[in-house]
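Hi R.,

Here's the chain you asked about this morning:
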Amino acid sequence: MGLPRRHADDGRRGGADGVGYGRTVRASRLVSLLLLLQARGRMTAAELADALEVSVRTVYRDVESLGAAGVPVYAERGPAGGYRLLDGYRTRLTGLTAGEAEALFLVGVPGPAAELGLGSVLATAELKLRAALPADLADPGGRIRQRFHLDAPSWFREPEPTPHLAALATSVWEDRRVRVRYRRWQAPREVTRTLDPLGVVLKAGRWYLVAAASGQVRTYRVGAILELTVLDEPAERPAGFDLAACWQEHAERYERGVYRAEARVRMTVAALAQTTHLFPPAMSRAAQDHAGAPDADGWVTTTVPIESVRHGRVEMLKLGAQVEVLAPPDLRELLAGTAHALAALYPPPGDGPPSGEPQPGHRDWGPAVRAKTSTDTAEQGGCVQPAKRPR
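And the predicted structure, written out as tokens:
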């Protein structure tokens, strides 16, 4: 994948293959040095060494090499001195309009690129672009970065650790098979799979691996990979495989398949408006699409999809007393049990024993509701996250 290598000095490497490798690294570094001077103007040897991750002595040698090759680079002495190129010396990238140049700068996504192990590669690519563009097109790059920012993760969600993402991205790029130990939601919780990686996808701040296993294309959450070994075997990539089309099909199939039941409900007009913020998008859209006209009391009847009875209970409780479940009967019964348990825990002031003491009815409803709540939490987590359903 061409992941960046840190080099402490001038890229020399021992061994029979070290000569070619050292020449390649040094040639790349000389180009980077030239582009740095072209993009930033005057830079000190220390600044160049820091940017290139080499010693100051190596910078001195590289500047001499550029000069010997005919590049008009010269040193300015004094406190404000440094190296710079002769005014007017630059290479230009022609054929780009201002809008096209701005779009190229907008493409860079530092966060995800860094997670893939390509942070420095992206920075170098942007540097090359800035250096090659004429001044009137290069300036908007910094302006755009100050006005547009991509924050991929969802609200109220901590970034998920993905220690194997960079290695996985390399295996995808190099078409190499991998062996993973993976944690899934069903028993057995940990399984080992040999996969043919086809691509990685960033969805709502979560990374997913699309891979072929036993002749079928499946999806795995990268954060659930416990161990990864890149094998010395070529991965088999299906002919004509389209990652974007495959992911779109997977996402649509998941959304269609996750809601396996429906609930008929009555809710207030205010509650219907709140579903946009409280329900998952598919449930909110259905609730509003199927809602009838409000009755005299300001209530509407509608139908919403649910994953299961337990999942439906969790979602309906978000609306409190502004929703009434009409069907199915088992969902209505489960909510009634929850309501009785809550009423026993929170009686009106003066109607029950002091707070913290067992309430009437609590013994009958509480344990059952607590058990169902525990089950709901585990089941809901499996339902709402596609990658928790690997096979």
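The chain has four domains: 18-85, 98-145, 165-250, 259-384.

Let me know if you need anything else.
M.
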